[in-house]
Every structure is written in structure tokens, then in C-alpha cells.
Amino acid sequence: MKKILAITFLVLLIDQASKIYIKTNFNLGDSVSIFPGFKLTFVENPGMAYGFHFGGIIGKYLLVILRVFLIGGMVYMFKKWLKEGASNYLLIPMSIIFAGAIGNLIDGMFYGMIFDSGSVYDPSIDRWLDYGGISKIVPFGQGYSSFMKGCVVDMFHFPLVDWYVPDSWPLIGGKHIEFFKYIFNVADSAITVGATFLLIFRKKAFPNGLEF
């Protein structure tokens, strides 16, 4: 259990520290090149990992509830796995995934309550509206929005290919080609890394097959 708690705490600390730094030092949309192919680009995401979202504010509520149930289910499974003496090949990747899920849940549930500005949903046009200025932390409950209406902070941007096709090219001339265009955060990375480790070491993680 100590191992699970330590990994979860470390990932959450890095995740939340990086998000708070970006939100309190960058304007929404600011982008700073760190080195070729890597930028810090501040965007806010009301939905899932890597910028995916759906269903306006109702979709956001459903996503938060789904994350709560997912985290609760993982707590149950950790207790089961520890009792059965599961290996580190299972516990460590799942701890990383667990931390990532909690990290994005914190943003969605509480960021609207602890920052003075952020993206808000306008039901009249069914869109999330951007904002100007750098955010500041305010006393809990005095933020720009309410419980479960905060947005996830994303910042890691790897445009390894960032190219405008010459206008002279037939059919695709003038188009912008970017890879990798998705912007993500530490929590997203943790979920991806943990899932990758589970896939690579699945035979050692689940020596008796996938059991729940």
C-alpha cells in the first residue's frame, strides 16, 4: 500500500504543480518554444485526455462522474490485488494510471472554485468560451465557476512536424500539417505510460490471465 500511495502522491504533485504554474504564469493560448519540436502551450480542456470532449456541460458532468466511479473501482481492485499478492508489474502501472485519473479529476471538480478566471460554458451557443489574462488563486469557493465546472489544464505540445504545404501543390496546397498536434499534461502522460507498461508486461502483470 505504501508503494501505491508514494507513486500516486509523486505523480499528483508533479501534475498539479505543473498545471498551477502554467495557469498562473501563462495567458490562455500562450506558447513558448523549449526546443525544436517541443513547446509549452497553454490550453484548457473541458473533456477527456488529449483535448477530446463531448456533450457540452452535461457531457462534462457525466465525465466527472465516470472518473469518480473509475477511481472508486480502482481502489476496490487495489485492495483485491494486494490481498492476492499481485506483482509490481501490475501494481506500479496501475498506480501511475490511478494518479493520472485523480489528477484530471481534481481540475474538473475544483479548478473553477480556486482560480479567478477560466474557460466557461455558454449554453446559449453550446460552446466553451475562452478568457483573457493570467489566472490567480483565490479562496476556495470564490472562483470563476462552481463545483464540477472547472477545466483541465494542458500544456505539453510536440509539433514534430509543423509545415504549410506550398500553394502550388495540387489539392492540398496551402494546408497546415502538424504532427503531433494534441496538447496534454502530466496526468494524461501517466495514464498513457501506465497503460503502455501494462501492455508490454501483461504476461507478468496477469500471469493467470486478466482477472477481476
TrEMBL record:
Main localization category: membrane
Topology within the bilayer: Multi-pass membrane protein
Record key words, sorted: Aspartyl protease, Cell membrane, Hydrolase, Lipoprotein, Membrane, Protease, Transmembrane, Transmembrane helix
Gene name of the encoded protein: lspA
Source organism: Chryseobacterium oncorhynchi
Protein's cellular compartments: Cell membrane
GO biological process: proteolysis
Residues annotated as signal peptide: none
Family: Belongs to the peptidase A8 family.
NCBIfam families: PRK14788.1
Known function: This protein specifically catalyzes the removal of signal peptides from prolipoproteins.
Protein name: Lipoprotein signal peptidase
GO terms for cellular component: plasma membrane
Residue stretches in coiled coil: none
Annotated EC: 3.4.23.36
